[in-house]
Amino acid sequence: MSLPETIHAIAFNKNGGVEVLEKLTFPFPQQKPTDIVVKVAYGGVNMIDTYFRKGLYPSPSFPQISGFEASGVIVKLPTDPAVLESKWFQLRGYKIGGRVAVNGLGSHAEYLSVPWKNVYPIPDELSLEAGAGILSHGLTALTLSTEAYNVKKGDTILIHTVAGGLGLLFTALAKHRGATVIGTTSTPEKAEIAKSYGADHVILYTKEDTVKRVLEITGGEGVDAVFDGVGKDTFLANFELLKRKGTLVAVGNASGAPDPISPLKLSPKNIKLVRPTVGNYIVTPEEAHPYFVELTNALKTGLFKIRIEKIFPFTVEGVREAQTELATPGNKISGKILIKIADV
After folding, report:
1. Are 186 and 162 in contact (CB under 8 A)?
2. Is the separation of the CB atoms in 302 and 99 below 8 Å?
3. Which domain holds residue 192?
4. Are residues 143 and 103 in the same domain?
5. Number of domains composing the chain
6. What is the pLDDT of residues 23-34, one digit of tens each?
7. Is the pTM higher than 0.85?
8. What does 62-102 look like in DSSP terms, one character per residue?
9. CA–CA separation, 15 vs 161, rounded Å?
10. End-of-domain residue from the set 263, 279, 295
């Protein structure tokens, strides 16, 4: 395959609003011996994209290419013999032309060169569109529901933004494990979508008092765990609706980072507070492999159903609109939004 000398990518040279996003030209990515080179078809759009753009999460350097997940096809395999001979590498069954999903910063580009451990083959049953929408949310749901708080039969779980792409997977997984799921969302339409994924109770936070409703549903006891991707706007209320020895899993910061709290805030109920990142659960191939297998099985069995809400063009205007729509409180997004980068 003939490869270009330059590529296009959506990037930013400084932190700020969506106006800092530009479509820039870069040299073709230099492949390290342990990297796989991928021609990108679709990029997933996630809240973490906005965190890096705003500077909540620091960028390694500027210009910084946006995006944290993508799908496409392999155009180059690693050249390091130790990698090629590794059982963990061989278990994934990579091949030139193979369809893959990629997880890592800088994915909204025409080509990527990324460490092989961040590249996952896409099952034959899955489209490239779905492949670009599953990796970040799928691995987050699996790792956090196992290691941040191990969701189990008999638990009662609260999921904020239950009808978003991540919330729907959290819901499906928790129901599969035998938990009761309470969710929050903004509209009746989104509530129905969440119920179709298994949510038992959906609270319309735009019309109802979330703390009051959770305590009503649980008979005043509260929930075993909260998975909160909202952040600042919901953070403190979670302490009121968690039961004694409950766990607060701070997943994200859609409304902004929560204000600092004293550790003494945890002591009245012996609450556990966790702020994990999926990347720190799957640093090594050995750690990632069981989750990759579980994710593949969840896709093949239909446990994880990928709902693609919108696909935006690979333009500055398209990516700006996608990030704006995703980050708008009470948005109409129920599922995943993508950027179509190229045909492959």
Report:
1. no
2. no
3. 137-279
4. no
5. 2
6. 999 999 999 999
7. yes
8. SSEE--SEEEEEEEE----HHHHT-HHHHHHT--TT-EEEE
9. 26
10. 279
Residues 149 and 267 placed together within one structural domain of the fold: yes
Rounded-to-integer distance, Cα 33 and Cα 142, Å: 30
Provide the β-strand partners of residue 42. 71, 340
Residue pair 15/53 in contact by the 8 Å Cβ criterion: yes
CATH of the domain at 93: 3.90.180.10
H-only helix segments in 127-284: 128-143, 165-176, 188-196, 210-217, 238-241
Clarify whether residues 145 and 247 are in a common domain: yes
**CA dist., res. 147 & res. 343, Å (int):** 37
Query: What are residue 157's DSSP bridge partners?
Result: 181, 225
**Amino acid, single-letter form, for residue 180:** T
Q: Over the stretch 103-131, which tens digit does the pLDDT of each residue have?
A: 999 999 999 999 999 999 998 889 999 99
Residues 9 and 109 sit within 8 Å (Cβ to Cβ):
yes
Question: 285, 87 in Cβ contact below 8 A?
Answer: no
